[in-house]
Amino acid sequence: MLAEYHKTLNQEEIHWKQKARVDWIQKGDRNTKFFKMSTLRRRSINIIAKTRNWSGVITYEEKEI
Description:
Distance between the termini: 43 Å
Order of helices and strands: HHEE
Largest sheet: 2 strands, antiparallel
Low-confidence stretches: none
Helix content: 55-70%
Structural class: mainly alpha
């Protein structure tokens, strides 16, 4: 039953990724609000805001990251 649940979750994730890809293909090449928001969202996700060093101390300073 748990394996079936995970399979369903995986299928749902694939569905939404494919839907997002279709939206990107249809709307993303133009300089639209959709394109700008997609870019801003991706940029915010890809930022490393903090890191933990070998001694376990978390730092937010850009030069240490």
